[in-house]
Amino acid sequence: ANGLPPGFQDRAMVTAMSEALVVGSGGWVGGAVSAELGRRGIPWRSASRVWSSTLVSRGGPGEIGPAILSSGVTCVINCAAPGETTQKQEGYVALTAALAAVCEELGVKLIHVGSAAEFGSNPMEFIADDAEPNPVSRYGEVKVAASELASSRGALVVRPFNIVGAQQPAGTPVGDWIRQIGRTGEDGGFVTVGNP
Q1: Residues 6+ apart with CB under 8 A from 19
Q2: How many angstroms separate the CA atoms of 82 and 40, rounded?
Q3: Separation between Cα atoms, residue 29 and residue 183, nearest integer Å
Q4: How far is 92 from 15, CA to CA, in rounded Å?
Q5: From the centroid of its chain, how far is CA 117?
Q6: Bridge-partner residues for 21, per DSSP?
Q7: Residue 192: other Cβ atoms inside 10 A
Q8: For 25-66, what is each residue's pLDDT tens digit?
Q9: Beta-carbon-side half-sphere exposure of residue 175 (alpha carbons within 13 Å)
Q10: Higher-confidence residue: 69 or 74?
Q11: Whole-angstrom Cα distance, residue 98 to residue 93?
Q12: pLDDT of residue 160
């Protein structure tokens, strides 16, 4: 994931960002966003999974507001991922709702990283920015719910497609292919693509 998601390419937004809070900075996308902010000389703070889930469980916006206000950030970037269990998915949507409400109230810009999965599986079709969501997986449904909550509160929602880069996580198709290629050796070998 070289560079920032597409919404970050707006120079005015990046210039105006005096300090950012990156939610999910310990993940692959959040780590790449944090590194890029650092490369651009934009100070940032990390909001860990423990921090965000603790604040949501303690009362949502009532706890998140003071935390954001005391940090002095001008922008919150939500790179958190929903997880695989229902409890984590519900927590992710609750966190996004709380962040969106608090950021709107405080006048802090929220950038929410959604997912191409919100549009479903149309690999051969062009998908316009204003296309209706059509998720075909639980992950996509959860991401749509969070993105719509964020958008309804004035957040910028970016939905990256096909993020590929160094340190690609295991369990993703590209990450698995990279690891297989790395094990082939000088004489080559086979890489399994798709279901074996």
Answers
A1: 42, 43, 44, 45, 71, 72, 73, 74, 75
A2: 28
A3: 25
A4: 29
A5: 12
A6: 45, 76
A7: 9
A8: 888 888 888 988 998 888 888 876 555 555 555 545 556 777
A9: 9
A10: 74
A11: 9
A12: 84
